[in-house]
Write a structure and sequence with these properties.
The chain is α/β, with parallel strands linked by helices. It has a single domain, classed as 3-Layer(aba) Sandwich (Rossmann fold), CATH 3.40.50. 33% of the residues lie in helices and 25% in strands. It starts with a helix and ends in a 5-residue tail after the last strand. The model has no long low-confidence stretch (mean pLDDT 95). One of its GO terms (molecular function) is S-adenosylmethionine-dependent methyltransferase activity.
Length: 255
């Protein structure tokens, strides 16, 4: 006998969702990983860098899992206070200076301060600021959420919306980088299968990844959650598809 709807949603509504660690979903949801291995690539680039910066680091979990260290120093930025505290905790022993910085504000660093800037799943990319803080010859490496990623989740809770208008297409990212004077040296895309094995997994996901259903609360969407629970009980996991793209850009060296 499986756990009841009320038990599943009550548990998922109470658990801490700060940081960017999804291990609570182990055994309850799955998502394919992009083939390029972002954390491995990030580590390779950091190992060759003198000074590195991780923008919108979340709780610092990805950076903390990289064994390599930049030769002269490392920094990271984050705007959301719960994530900021988590990042400071996760990265303190790694020698990473974590700085509070709003997503829409200029980066609080000098021109040409870093030869590597990284960012995993940034909300927005301020290409001019990335270009400004990079040294000539420096690189930007980022894995980003692609167009209409996981739209099946949005559609289930809020109704279908037109596709192709998410503003997260790879080509505008290329255009933004080039407009800031960067040369795009790599751009790859992937579509990845997601499965939610119980309604509690969906509750946790929507509380943590808040842009899917921005006004989500268990009480407000109780009817849709109940329908989802019944659907999973009858048909098996709820399936969606996430999209990701990898972009790497280089600031031209001085002549």
């Amino acid at each position: 006998m499986g756990r009841s709807f009320e038990e599943l949603i009550a548990e998922a509504d109470a658990v801490d969702v700060s940081g960017w660690d999804f291990s609570w979903l182990d055994g309850r949801a799955t998502e394919e990983r992009p083939p390029w291995g972002y954390q491995r690539l990030m580590g390779e680039r950091i190992g060759r860098a003198a000074m590195s910066l991780d923008v919108q680091t979340g709780g610092g979990e990805v950076l903390a899992g990289v064994p390599q260290r930049a030769a002269r120093g490392m920094a990271a930025t984050e705007s959301w206070p719960p994530n900021l505290a988590r990042a400071q905790e996760n990265l303190r022993d790694k020698g990473v200076v974590v700085v509070a910085a709003e997503e829409a504000s200029p980066l609080p660093f000098a021109d040409g301060a870093f030869d590597l800037v990284t960012s995993r799943h940034p909300v927005t990319v301020h290409w001019a600021e990335v270009a400004r803080v990079l040294t000539p010859g420096g690189h930007y490496l980022s894995q980003q959420v692609g167009p209409d990623s996981g739209h099946e989740v949005y559609d289930f809770f809020l109704g279908p919306r037109p596709l192709g208008r998410s503003g997260r297409e790879p080509e505008p990212a290329r255009a933004g980088a080039e407009a800031a004077g960067l040369e795009v040296v790599d751009l790859r895309t992937a579509e990845l299968r997601m499965e939610f094995l119980d309604v509690g997994a969906m509750v946790y996901f929507l509380r943590k990844v808040i842009w899917f259903v921005p006004d989500f609360t268990v009480e407000k969407y109780r009817d849709r959650l109940a329908a989802l629970h019944e659907r999973i009980q009858a048909d098996g996991p709820f399936v969606a598809h996430s999209r990701r793209f990898l972009i790497e850009a280089r600031k031209p060296a001085r002549r």
